[in-house]
Amino acid sequence: GDTEDSDDNDTGSKPDVIAYASVLNAFARSSEEGSAERAESLLQYMEEAYSEGGNDDIKPTVRCYNAVIQAWGACANTDVRSSFKAIELFKRMVQEFESSGDISVKPNIHTFNAIISTLARSTYDKDAAKKACEILNRMERMYLAGDYTVKPDIATYSSVINALA
Fold it and tell me: What is the pLDDT along the chain (165 residues), one digit of tens a residue?
């Protein structure tokens, strides 16, 4: 076979979380059908490699989760699962953060805005507007309790208005 691609010439370098996050972001920006599923599969691979294999180099961060939520948001008007998948990812992030205290997976303003934006675009989730308002209320409570990383901004309010429209 072609020795250029063989493991014999492996330099020992492996993709790290930054490389994986870049791929996830590409999926998030892609309009190609199946991009969200591929992004989620890659995230699951990263989670398993970290939790089962202890591979710290590809431990998913908030940026990775946000990219996958955005990927689901990109297909929210054509995929019935999009808002449910986005919220499911959010819940996984919260659970991971609350159980481990690991700040690298703590949902931030971008996480919340991506979820609300996904809900605003969802044509299938009949409770999307209600869920968007609930998420906004959660952000406001967290902000008032001293978490300044989730202060609602103009993008937050614009997406909530779009969800209500």
Answer: 444 444 555 567 788 999 999 999 999 999 889 999 999 999 999 999 998 888 889 999 999 999 999 999 999 888 888 999 999 999 999 999 999 999 999 999 999 999 999 999 998 889 999 999 999 999 999 999 999 999 999 999 999 999 999
> Which residue shows structure tokens 């948001």?
73
Can you give the pTM of this predicted structure? 0.87
| Cα–Cα distance for residue pair 48/126, rounded to 1 Å | 33
- Map out the domains of the chain as residue ranges: 15-164
Burial pattern 92-119, b for ≥16 Cβ within 10 A else e, equals ebeebbeeeeeeebbbbbbbbbbbbbbb
CB atoms within 10 A of CB 136: 18
